[in-house]
Write a structure and sequence with these properties.
Shape: globular
Order of helices and strands: HHHHHHHHHHHHHHHHHHHHHHHHHHH
Length: 594
């Protein structure tokens, strides 16, 4: 403990001396002492960010590059707010929220964080395994249960070792920081290097890339860019059909990408990682610098590079087999998956006789013999008509297909030196998954410590880390099975619903004199904080409403899932309303803010 205090005092003196020497010395000190922002970067650069950026590029080309820029800006604003509150008061946010704001918000925050950590750790293990299997060690891993168990155990052991190193001060913690920064650096270099190589080969137009960073809110309600141009080439009769499908996919991709920029568990990690380092209000400038350089810049670089690379490889592109006029040849295309076949089949179903169309779309669990006959006849009719669709419609369908992130390395292989695409993407993808596992385990440790009101790095912390890690390592039992749909829908919906509530909570904390006292921003500082936070809160509420209403209103969502989702959402909001009446009575004097 004394060693930790000595290190904090030493860092504080370094900051004070640097600030006295000027801007250059201050920046140098910030670079030297940065850390928590890199933790944020390690979790935000995970499988969710990768798949979200990949599909943004496939669907919108470079026209949606602005989205992740806006999402990370909103996230940095709100993370800066909770950082300001935490470092100004030196108090743990969970306790402050429960006492001064709303206990339901506090407990919801911590429960949602734990659920997200344990469940979303699973796909990160799966991502690491797939990177080894498909890119780094092809042929060495055989895909068997023993193989998955062994690899997952080794990943868990390595991640757990690094987590333990971070919990200790001195050289072990420094090594952890170096490893983490090194992994983030490798991820950035891998994807940035691919884009530089693509740009050098003329695979894309830099002018289009730069224009893609200009926000275009039309993407919420209509196709944009080259997708809109291709839509105009489709038969006029079916343009509305394709437009509806494109917009639905765009909304889903935009919400998914925005949700993975700053997740609910990230809002929990930052303040506790700073408190664990002994930071206080002297470190507030360092904290903002750390967020910008350690999280925002790597996130923007990596996700933008993935969008550009996937747009170059897949946006409105298809192989000759997929564009063939022969159904048998179309089936040999790697694009012609169940997704593409379903998209094209539903489009062609618009042209067949009504009786056959109704039979084809009927998914009754126990169809009659007559219905089976009609469905078979409808399927045959559709398969005969699919090859006759125009190239424009086939290309639109190809851009709506969900593709595996590992196809990107295969698609770019001809543009890169022999074997380089597989290696580069393998390292980058493995690094994204592994670094996220480490941070998810750490966050769960902090959350369990708060729930138990235990001491830092004590038994509760170790238990929390183990629970998240073991949950993740069991991915091949749970995440690959039928439970994946339920878990992902419920947790992601709850998390994205809770994110604006967390943002509102931070907004209230930043405006609470009871919490901040003389550190409460005033004058122009208060105006700037509130304007920026207000924009972020409105954006988060809009994203949450769009995501939840989309699931509830979608005919594709199972009725039981809709009922459970609505129960969770409405029930929690009711509890939040009730929770405002249960703050400590001593905390609501008549002459202060509520």
């Amino acid at each position: 403990m004394s060693e930790n205090l000595s290190k904090v005092e030493s860092d504080r003196e370094v900051l004070k001396e640097a600030q006295a020497q000027g801007t250059g010395a201050t920046l140098g000190a910030w670079v030297k002492l940065s850390g928590p922002g890199w933790l944020q970067s390690a979790i935000t650069l995970g499988g969710g960010s990768l798949s979200g950026a990949l599909f943004l590029g496939i669907l919108g080309g470079t026209n949606l590059l602005w989205l992740q820029l806006v999402a990370i800006f909103m996230g940095v604003v709100m993370l800066s707010a909770i950082t300001y509150v935490t470092l100004s008061t030196g108090e743990r946010p969970f306790r402050q929220i429960n006492k001064h704001i709303n206990p339901v918000l506090g407990w919801g925050w911590i429960v949602a964080t734990c659920a997200a950590n344990m469940i979303f750790c699973m796909p990160q293990f799966g991502l690491c395994y797939a990177a080894l299997d498909k890119n780094l060690l092809p042929g060495v891993i055989d895909g068997s249960l023993v193989s998955k168990l062994t690899v997952s155990a080794l990943i868990l052991l390595a991640a757990g070792t690094l987590v333990i190193m971070n919990s200790r001060r001195g050289l072990a913690a420094k090594i952890f920081d170096w490893v983490l920064k090194g992994m983030i650096g490798i991820i950035v270099l891998c994807f940035f290097g691919v884009v530089v190589r693509l740009g050098y080969s003329g695979a894309f137009d830099w002018g289009e890339v730069l224009s893609g960073f200009i926000p275009d809110l039309r993407a919420i309600s209509q196709p944009v860019g080259r997708m809109a141009e291709m839509l105009a080439e489709a038969p006029e009769k079916y343009q509305q059909y394709w437009s509806t499908r494109i917009v639905d996919k765009q909304k889903a991709a935009m919400i998914g990408a925005a949700a993975t920029a700053v997740g609910i568990n990230m809002t929990f990690l930052l303040p506790y990682s700073m408190l664990s380092r002994g930071w206080d209000k002297t470190f507030r400038g360092l904290a903002r610098f750390d967020l910008s350089t350690g999280m925002a810049i790597p996130y923007i670089l990596v996700t933008s590079c993935v969008v550009i690379a996937s747009a170059s490889a897949f946006h409105l592109k298809a192989d000759a087999q997929f564009l063939s006029s022969s159904f048998e040849e179309m089936q040999t295309s790697p694009i012609f998956t169940s997704d593409a076949r379903g998209i094209l089949s539903h489009r062609v179903a618009q042209d067949i006789p009504a009786e056959l169309r109704e039979a084809f779309l009927n998914n009754a669990p126990n169809p009659s013999d007559e219905l089976k006959t009609l469905k078979a006849e409808a399927t045959q009719e559709i398969e005969q008509r699919i090859p006759n669709l125009s190239d424009s419609e086939k290309l639109l369908a190809a851009s709506l297909v969900n593709r595996n992130e590992f196809l990107l390395s295969s698609a770019l292989a001809p543009l890169l030196p022999d074997g380089m695409a597989q290696l580069v993407f393998g390292i980058g993808i493995f690094g994204m998954g592994f670094s996220t596992i480490i941070i998810l385990m750490m966050i769960n440790g902090y959350a369990f410590t708060e729930i138990a009101d235990g001491r830092p790095n004590g038994r509760a912390h170790v238990l929390g880390c183990l629970v998240a890690g073991i949950s993740g390592a069991s991915w091949f039992f749970i995440w690959d099975g039928d439970a994946k749909v339920w878990l992902s829908i419920l947790v992601s919906s709850f998390a994205i619903m809770f994110l604006p509530i967390a943002y509102v909570t931070f907004f209230l904390m930043m405006n609470s004199r009871r919490i901040l006292g003389k550190e409460l921003p005033t004058g122009m500082s208060s105006i700037i904080w509130n304007v920026l936070m207000g924009i972020s809160v409105i954006g988060a509420i809009g994203a949450a409403y769009t995501a939840i209403s989309g699931k509830v209103m979608s005919p594709a969502t199972d009725p039981t899932q809709k009922a459970v989702l609505l129960t969770v959402v409405v029930g929690y909001l009711v509890l939040v309303a009730i929770g405002f009446y249960f703050r400590s009575a001593e905390d609501i004097p008549a002459d202060t803010d509520a």
